[in-house]
Design brief:
alpha+beta; Sortase, Chain: A; 2 domains; two-stranded antiparallel sheet; 2 helices
Length: 261
């Protein structure tokens, strides 16, 4: 310590110089911690998704052995077909799939179709709101949207209860975007899928489960009968592409309808 002219002790020059250094060290540590947390948040989903998702139960139990591993759907990284009428012929890369099917004779109903607002799959515990989605530009590429935390219905596809292909998509493992379809791989042939509008519950029955490549958008093609197609990710996580290698496709046919008013 040094004495000031008034006789009081004062800090030495060395101790005064230590305060700026201490403050600088604290700021440096705070900056490093912030940088680490930002990096962790950015890569969290990718690091947690560095795995293989379970194979669909129906395919795993198929007597014909493993189904051909093709995969596809309107995913966040799938390019949109140029023609809305021809939402994609199967690509050459899509291998034929040995997919179990079950015959289902759709039941004609007097109810008109409508915009879906909820989807319920009792066998796998799905009970989600449904929101209309479409396409968006991401990094200069037109892609199919997938909405966070709930199921999305592609507004350009058929409505609930209508003849045609009503297409629904949901996330499978993302902690930041939700996992509404995390158990979709457990769905079985014959399971019921309830799709609700504001006034009607349309009950569909699962007739097919398959894996396809992300480039195969034929699953989005129109159908002559009332069909619901459910899509989510499957297969192995590809870190450099930030997506899974396959798409799980569940096809269901309309069986009945009832009024909820």
């Amino acid at each position: 310590m040094e004495r000031r002219p008034d006789g009081q002790e004062s800090p030495t020059r060395g101790s005064r110089r230590n305060w700026p250094r201490l403050i600088g060290d604290l700021l440096l540590i705070a900056g490093a911690v912030s940088l680490f947390l930002a990096g962790f948040a950015y890569f969290a989903d990718a690091s947690r998704a560095d795995m293989s998702l379970p194979r669909p139960v129906v395919l795993a139990n198929a007597t014909g052995g493993p189904a051909a591993e093709a995969a596809s759907s309107p995913s966040m990284s799938t390019s949109v077909p140029t023609s809305p009428a021809a939402t994609a012929a199967p690509t050459a890369a899509a291998a034929p799939t040995a997919t179990p099917t079950v015959a289902a004779a759709p039941t004609a109903t007097p109810f008109t179709g409508g915009v879906p607002v909820r989807i319920v799959i009792p066998s796998i515990g799905v009970n989600s709101m449904v929101q209309e989605i479409g396409t968006a530009w991401v990094n200069g590429q037109l892609i199919w949207q997938t909405i966070p935390f709930i199921v999305g219905h592609y507004r350009t596809s058929a409505q609930a209860g209508q003849n045609g292909n009503a297409i629904f998509a949901g996330h499978v493992t993302s902690e930041t975007l939700g996992n509404v379809f995390i158990n979709l791989y457990k769905i079985g042939l014959g399971d019921e899928v309830e799709i609700q509008t504001n006034d009607t519950i349309f009950t569909y029955t699962v007739t097919r489960v398959k894996l396809v490549l992300p480039t195969d958008t034929s699953v989005m093609n129109p159908t002559p009968d009332a069909t619901a197609t459910l899509i989510t990710c499957a297969g192995d996580w590809i870190p450099d592409q930030h997506q899974y290698s396959r798409r799980l496709i569940v096809t269901a046919k309309l069986m009945s309808a009832k009024s909820i008013k």
